[in-house]
C-alpha cells in the first residue's frame, strides 16, 4: 500500500509503503523547518501504530537542517519506547555529513542503500 503525503514543487513528498513487517518512508525534497512538521506528523502516526521496522529512504533528500534531524531523533526515541527499529538509508554525502558532524551517525542505524537497510 503506497500513500503520497506531499508533492508540491519545492516541498517534501512523503511516500509510505508497507513491505511485510517493514515500513518504508521515502522522502523526496529538502527536509527543513517548513516541512518538518509534515514529516513529524507522518512519523508519529507510524510510531503510534508501533510499526516494528521503519526505514527512511533519503536517497532523494539533498538537504536536511536541524529541524529535520530533530524530527528523526524524535521518531527514533518513539520506536525505541516500544522496541521497534528505525533505519536511515541512502543518505547523500552532504546529508550524511550533517549526521557525522553532530555525531548522530553513531546513534542512528545508517545504511548505504534501501535494500541493505531492509535486510539488516
Structural description of this entry:
- This protein is α/β, with parallel strands linked by helices and 120 residues long.
- The chain has helices spanning 36-48, 66-81, 93-101, 114-119, and strands spanning 2-4, 13-19, 22-28, 53-60, 85-89, 109-111.
- It is globular.
- It has a single domain (2-119), classed as 2-Layer Sandwich (Transcription Regulator spoIIAA), CATH 3.30.750.
Instruction: Output the CATH class name.
Output: Alpha Beta
Shape: globular
Mean pLDDT: 92
How many structural domains are formed by the residues?
1
Q: How many H/I helices?
A: 4
The CATH architecture would be 2-Layer Sandwich
Give the strand order, joined by hyphens, for the main sheet.
1-2-3-4-5-6
Number of strands: 6
Order of helices and strands: EEEHEHEHEH
Structural class: alpha/beta
The proportion of residues in beta strands is 25-35%
User: Nearest-angstrom radius of gyration?
Assistant: 13 Å
Percent helix, as a range, is 25-40%
CATH topology: Transcription Regulator spoIIAA
Low-pLDDT segments: 1-9
Question: Could you give me the name of the CATH homologous superfamily?
Answer: STAS domain
Largest sheet: 6 strands, mixed
Q: What gap, in angstroms, lies between the N and C termini?
A: 22 Å
By oligomeric state, this entry counts as single chain
Task: Describe the structure in brief.
This protein has 4 helices and 6 strands; from the N terminus they run βββαβαβαβα.
Amino acid at each position: 500500500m503506497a500513500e503520497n503525503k506531499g508533492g508540491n514543487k519545492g516541498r517534501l513528498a512523503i511516500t509510505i509503503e508497507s513491505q511485510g513487517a517493514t515500513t518504508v518512508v521515502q522522502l523526496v525534497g529538502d527536509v527543513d523547518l517548513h516541512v518538518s512538521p509534515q514529516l513529524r506528523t507522518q512519523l508519529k502516526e507510524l510510531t503510534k501504530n508501533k510499526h516494528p521496522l521503519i526505514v527512511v529512504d533519503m536517497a532523494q533528500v539533498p538537504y536536511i537542517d536541524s529541524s529535520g534531524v530533530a524530527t528523526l531523533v524524535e521518531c527514533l526515541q518513539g520506536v525505541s519506547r516500544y522496541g521497534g527499529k528505525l533505519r536511515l538509508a541512502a543518505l547523500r554525502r552532504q546529508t550524511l555529513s550533517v549526521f557525522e558532524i553532530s555525531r548522530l551517525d553513531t546513534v542512528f542505524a545508517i545504511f548505504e542503500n534501501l535494500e541493505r537497510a531492509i535486510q539488516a
